[in-house]
Amino acid sequence: MTAAETISAFERSLITEDEAIEQAMADDLNDLYRRAVLELAPHLVAQAIHSRHLPC
Predict the structure, then answer these.
(1) pTM of the model
(2) How far apart are CA 37 and CA 55, in angstroms?
(3) Helices (H), the chain
(4) What is the dihedral of CA 27, 39, 17, 19, to 10 degrees?
(5) Which pLDDT belongs to residue 53?
(6) Under a CB-based contact definition with an 8 Å cutoff, are residues 36 and 7 in contact?
(7) Distance between the two ends of the chain, CA-based, in angstroms?
(8) Distance between CA atoms of residues 55 and 5, nearest Å
(9) Torsion of CA 23, 24, 27, 33, to 10 degrees
(10) pLDDT-based confidence at 2, cuts 50/70/90?
């Protein structure tokens, strides 16, 4: 499952927050959403790695 698919399942109440975090091997829910953003917008990867966070 991709991070985006995991979030979709979580938001549809198919899995719990803990299951979503475990499924994605994320640190927390914020990390899971960050991973989904990076999956959906690959051009942000280099910028996120460089700055260690997503731009606001």
Answers:
(1) 0.70
(2) 11
(3) 3-11, 17-24, 29-40, 44-51
(4) -80
(5) 57
(6) yes
(7) 27
(8) 23
(9) -130
(10) very high
Q: How confident is the model at residue 41 (pLDDT cuts 50, 70, 90)?
A: confident
Tokens of 38: 């990076």
Q: Which residues contact 55 (CB under 8 A, 6 or more apart)?
A: 44, 47
Residue 55: its pLDDT value, please?
53
Token representation of residue 46 = 């280099």
Nearby residues of 1 by Cβ (< 8 Å), 6 or more positions away? 9, 23, 24
Mean pLDDT of 34-52: 78
